[in-house]
Structure formats: structure tokens, C-alpha cells
Design brief:
Layout lengths: L10 H13 L2 H8 L3 H15 L4 E4 L2 E4 L1 H23 L11 E6 L1 H6 L1 H11 L4 E6 L5 H7 L4 E4 L8 E9 L1 E5 L9 H6 L1 E5 L8 H8 L5 E6 L5 H5 L5 E5 H9 L4 E3 L8 E8 L6 H13 L3 H4 L1
Length: 305
């Protein structure tokens, strides 16, 4: 096919194909693209004719791609990213008049502790925009960035899609929170003897603190695991339970009263909070503005320099 033949192609079909590859479902693809199922089914018929291949084979409730579909997807994704980048670069963005909808992924600690300050700034600069926040962690963020469900993620992030970009926006230092009124700092022995609460997205009872304790032959007793930071302060109130949280979350929880912050009895290595975004939107003026505000109001001076 030469470039003149491209005039015969409906590029909306390629967007449907890419979404089908991510969702593996006609129903979910229709929901994602705000179209009816008949429209997606008709588009799939045209795609099969265009590529002269079945493309997807139904296996139970899933639409599994053929070898040809996987090959096409590998070539198509960077091409669509390039087209998106070229179109975005030609658009201007004025926060004061913008009505964009931004879809971002935040880990629970970021949403709870840092989003309020970011939101106030966004509402001041760009009152017409809509912010859709999705809960992410290091497991969910890569897939949601790859599928386009979110354009940017802020969390502890490790492996990311090949076309994603990443920068460290904040150093994470662990702090200990306690609600009891017993004076004096806890020793490591006292710390290990006390009951503990953790925030665990998956419901695990072990975290990085336990890994660090194990390195020196120590352990602790976790008696409470909750899925989010919101409400942690009221749960600890009136108990001798301790919790270890990021420094910015400790500040936010302690500000509501009833908890006090202490340096951790264990020397814990610092972590990092990262921002990752889709490479296809690297030069998008609106997305660049959003990322700059995230860096300013979620990040710290040490990481932004």
C-alpha cells in the first residue's frame, strides 16, 4: 500500500483496533469509546477485510488476538502515538479558558495527602477543566498508561510501558505515627513489641518495613491492614497501635489532631515518588501544563532541581 492508498482508510478503525487489543472485549471497547456494540462489531468486520485476517478469535468471554493482530499492534501503536504527538504540538493551551478533561492516576497516599493542594492550584488557574482521578499502584499504572485510561500517574513506579516517560518528583522518608500519650521516644525493642497498622492495597500483612526488620533479625506484629489512608487517624485513636507512613502523609494525618509524628526507630532507606506519562503526549501543551503543576505542588524542591 502506498501513501495515496491511505486516503481509503478510515483511521477511526485503527483506534477501534487498538482499543480491542487492550480490552479484548467488544462490550468494553464500546464503553471505552462511547459507542454502541453494533458499531464496534461493524468496525471489526471492516478491520478483518482491511487486514485480510480474523484478527480476534472468541475464547470464552474474551476476544483473543491472532498472531497477525499482535504483529499489527506492535507496528500500529508507535504510529498512532506519533500522529497524536504531531496533532497535539500544533494546539495551544490557555488554562484560564480551557475545558479539558484530564485523567490521572494517583496512589492512595498521594490522593489523600497531596491532591488537595494541587486541586486548589488547578481550580485557581484553570476553573473550567475537569479532573478525573483513578486509584493506581505500581501494578495497575503501567496497563492504564498503555491503554490510555490515564495520561499521567503519580505513585511508586517501577516497570512502565516502553513508550512512557518518568521522573522522580519527591523523595519519600518514612515517619512513625502514634496516638498514645506515653512520653518519650520508642526504642527499637519497644517498637517491635507494639501492635502495628499498615495500609495495604492488596490486603498483605507484610511491607517494606517488615523486609527491613528481617534484615536485622527482627519482626513486628501487624494487627490491622486497611486499604487506604483516609480514616487511619480515627482508627488509631485511643489505642497503642503504631503505623509507618510517608512523611507527607504523616504531616497531613497529624494536622487533624490526635496523632504525633516521631522519627522512625529503624533506619529506613528513602524511597521515591515518581510521575510517569504517555510518550505520545510528551509535547501536548495541556499535558505539559498539568505535569508542571504536579511537579510544583506534589513534588519537593529536592527532586525538582
Amino acid at each position: 500500500m502506498n501513501r495515496n492508498d491511505l486516503r481509503r482508510i478510515d483511521f477511526n478503525l485503527l483506534v477501534v483496533f487498538e482499543t480491542l487489543m487492550h480490552e479484548r472485549s467488544v462490550t468494553k471497547t464500546a464503553e471505552k469509546l462511547f459507542l454502541g456494540q453494533p458499531a464496534i462489531s461493524a468496525a471489526l468486520v471492516r478491520l478483518r477485510t482491511l487486514f485480510n485476517d480474523e484478527l480476534f478469535v472468541r475464547t470464552g468471554r474474551s476476544m483473543e488476538p491472532t498472531a497477525r493482530a499482535i504483529e499489527i499492534f506492535a507496528m500500529l501503536t508507535p504510529a498512532l502515538d506519533s500522529i497524536s504527538t504531531a496533532l497535539s504540538a500544533s494546539q495551544e493551551f490557555d488554562p484560564a479558558t480551557a475545558t479539558n478533561t484530564f485523567r490521572i492516576g494517583l496512589s492512595d497516599d498521594v490522593e489523600f495527602s497531596l491532591l488537595p493542594l494541587l486541586l486548589r492550584r488547578i481550580r485557581t488557574e484553570a476553573p473550567g477543566i475537569v479532573l478525573v482521578v483513578r486509584r493506581v499502584n505500581y501494578l495497575l499504572a503501567p496497563g492504564m498508561l498503555s491503554s490510555g485510561e490515564i495520561s499521567v500517574a503519580v505513585s511508586f513506579l517501577d516497570e512502565l510501558p516502553a513508550n512512557a516517560k518518568k521522573k522522580t518528583v519527591r523523595r519519600i522518608r518514612a515517619k512513625m505515627l502514634r496516638a498514645d500519650a506515653t512520653p518519650g521516644k520508642l526504642t527499637l525493642d519497644e517498637y517491635c513489641a507494639r501492635p502495628h497498622a499498615i495500609v495495604s492495597f492488596a490486603g498483605d500483612l507484610n511491607g517494606y518495613v517488615d523486609n527491613e526488620l528481617a534484615k536485622i533479625g527482627r519482626s513486628r506484629k501487624v494487627v490491622l491492614a486497611v486499604p487506604q489512608f483516609n480514616g487511619l487517624g480515627s482508627l488509631l485513636a485511643g489505642t497503642d497501635i503504631l503505623t509507618t507512613v510517608p512523611d507527607y502523609t504523616a504531616d497531613y494525618l497529624a494536622a487533624t489532631g490526635g496523632l504525633r509524628i516521631e522519627e522512625h526507630p529503624l533506619s529506613l532507606p528513602p524511597g521515591s515518588l515518581s510521575m510517569a506519562w504517555r510518550g505520545a503526549q510528551d509535547n501536548d501543551p495541556a499535558e505539559k501544563w498539568l505535569r508542571s503543576r504536579i511537579s510544583m505542588f506534589v513534588g519537593d524542591e529536592e527532586s525538582s532541581n
